[in-house]
User: What shape does this take?
Amino acid sequence: MKKTKIYGLLAVACLFVSSCTDDLNTEPKFELTLEELLIRDPNAVEGLLSRMYSTFALSSVSGPGDSDIAGADAGESPFIRGLVNLNDFTADGMKNKWGDNGLDQLTTTKGWNSNNKFFKYVYDRIYYTVPQTTNLILILKQKVDVPNEDQYISELRFLRALSYYYLIDFFGKGPLINDTNYGAPVPVAESSRAELFAFVESELKDIESKIAPTNTYGRANKAVVQMLLAKLYLNAEVYTGTARYSDAATYASKVISSGTYQLESNFTKNFRADNNTSKEIIFPLIADATNSQSFGNTTYIVNGNLNSATMTLSTYGATEGWGGHRATKAWYGLFGANAASLATSTDIRAKQFWLTGHNYEMTDYKEWTDGYPSIKFTNKNSDGSGAITSFSSTDFPLFRLSDTYLIYAESSLRGATTGNVAQALTYVNQIRTRAGASALPTLTLQNILDERGRELGLEGVRRQDLIRFGRFTGGTYLWPWKGGVQAGTSISDSYKVFPIPASALQANPNLTQNPGY
Assistant: This one.
């Protein structure tokens, strides 16, 4: 059990945050206003900040059966579940067999529309967090003084920027709610992808010098802010039409040179219940089987990849196997062209899959035994110890150092003036040799894409990577069940962003639908 938790239940029993409503600017309602609460007890800011961090990991601090999002399924609507659904199941490496309406369209990259509940859940989660953090920022800036106030404001601004980063990536546009227009009596105007990008960039650059260089586990520090900037700049050409690879390399270098993080000698430790002791994880989203329960955090990943029909659940610390998720050969094929070569690979990342009783080819994505379940994430400690529980205690590594190395390497190969290709090769080979793979003599962009696939599968980045490499839409690169066809087929460029949910369009007449939907 982890000793340090940022997502505790709020100590003030009278504090209740209202759920998301059709009005994105609705001010949260409390029996005590936030201002009154903080005047009475300045230390309550810790609980309020904790509440904002929890929006990325839990359905609600009230427990796994409740959701912050009005009308949403508590198990389906948490952020991590949305991240996996939208960035992994829509891409090449992972598929789901359940056939649920909405989820099935994601796993086959077919039939996307504005009524898909999984788009709505992520969009609503973003616009739950943005107004809440903004409200608290304004109170701290204008109405109440608390000790260490600048640090709290910096962390809240980071969490708001993180929400907007995912809005930029997933939907490409939306209302920009900030310190100047929060609580406006009319719906906020739509902002473009470039405008949102500029806001996130300016916020992160401003708080970079203000936020603490170190912080308690699970909270943002300077390196966390720098890592988000590196990721923003890595994808800048997609988001704005202007490449920013030199900036991406610069900020990746800042994270690396901080000396705070290092590659874990044991790759698998990053995905076990004791990963809170990993030296590699830069920013985790915390899970705990007792204190931070959710059906939509790593519980979704662990349990979703297990099925007692072909696997022993207790080996992975789980009491339930939901029998839904399996990898495809687009992921495990990076380690071996067939089952035999995959099984004999010296790369320890090839062991991220359960092979027994399953087929290498995914002839039918709705057949459990077609494709290999991923056992990358488990609910056991890295030494095999640990309890068997209904919920996962494995934190989700949203940012980790190997991704930083790969950002630096890709940016260098794409011409970053602040990068060095020789250093990039060193970083990539450190990742490979850690995994037991042979060192590469030279680097190509294809090497980088493949290495990101091997290293970062099921970590919520794959769709983003394929878009950046020009492999997601069209027919240049096909994977199993792309476009709903077993061998894969071309899909429209409109799928580079998701449709704006119909409920958002109805709530705010200033919003317009993305092309193609």
